[in-house]
C-alpha cells in the first residue's frame, strides 16, 4: 500500500499524532529518559524525511490537541480516535509510531498511516530492532521510510 501522490498531484497533508513506547517489561525495567528521548528523535526523523520528500505537507499538532491525545487512550487502541483527531486538524492523513520493547535486545518499530477521508489504513509496516540504542532506533525508522514508504528516493 502506498500513500504517495503522483508528481502532478498536490502534496498530502499529514500529521504525526505521536510516538509511543510499549514497554513489555515496565515492572522490571522502567522506561528510561533515554528511551523517551529516542521516541522524540524517531518522530523528528520521520517527519523530516516526509517533509524533505516533497510529497508531503507535514503539519504540527497544536499544543491543546497534543495534550488531548496524551491524556486519551493509546493511539491504535482507541477505536478510531486517530481519525477523529485527523478530521479535527483538517489533514489528509494521520500517522503514529509505536515502538514495542520486549527487552533491551529485542524491540520492534511500527509505523501506521491512515487516510482521514476514507478512514482506511494506507500504510502499516513493522521492522525489528536489535539493540536499544539511539543508532538502532534511527536506523529502523530510516529503513521503513527509505525502503517502504518512499522507495527509490534515497
Name the descriptors.
alpha/beta; 154 residues; 36% helix; Rossmann fold; globular; five-stranded mixed β-sheet; single chain; 5 strands
Descriptive account of the structure:
- The protein has helices at residues 33-53, 63-71, 81-89, 134-149, and strands spanning 12-23, 56-59, 93-101, 106-115, 120-130.
- The model has no long low-confidence stretch (mean pLDDT 94).
- It has one domain (12-149): Rossmann fold (3-Layer(aba) Sandwich).
- β3 and β4 form a beta hairpin.
- It has a five-stranded mixed beta sheet, sandwiched between helices.
- It is α/β, with parallel strands linked by helices.
Number of strands: 5
Treating each run of at least 4 consecutive H or I residues as one helix, how many helices? 4
Order of SSEs: EHEHHEEEH
Coarse morphology: globular
Level-2 CATH architecture: 3-Layer(aba) Sandwich
Low-pLDDT residue intervals, each spanning 5 or more residues:
none
Helix content: 25-40%
Secondary-structure class: alpha/beta
In short:
The chain has 154 residues and is an alpha/beta fold.
Amino acid at each position: 500500500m502506498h500513500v504517495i501522490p503522483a508528481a502532478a498531484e498536490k502534496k498530502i497533508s499529514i500529521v504525526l499524532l505521536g510516538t509511543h513506547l510499549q514497554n513489555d517489561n515496565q515492572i522490571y525495567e522502567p522506561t528510561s529518559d533515554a528511551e523517551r528521548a529516542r521516541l522524540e528523535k524517531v518522530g523528528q526523523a520521520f517527519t523530516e524525511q516526509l517533509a524533505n520528500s516533497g510529497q508531503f505537507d507535514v503539519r504540527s499538532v497544536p499544543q491543546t490537541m497534543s495534550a488531548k491525545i496524551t491524556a486519551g487512550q493509546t493511539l491504535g487502541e482507541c477505536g478510531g480516535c486517530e481519525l477523529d483527531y485527523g478530521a479535527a486538524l483538517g489533514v489528509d492523513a494521520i500517522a503514529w509510531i509505536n515502538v514495542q520493547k520486549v527487552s533491551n535486545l529485542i524491540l520492534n518499530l511500527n509505523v501506521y498511516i491512515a487516510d482521514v477521508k476514507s478512514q482506511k489504513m494506507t500504510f502499516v509496516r513493522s521492522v525489528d530492532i536489535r539493540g536499544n540504542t539511539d543508532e538502532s532506533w534511527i536506523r529502523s525508522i530510516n529503513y521503513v521510510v527509505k525502503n517502504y514508504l518512499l522507495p527509490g528516493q534515497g
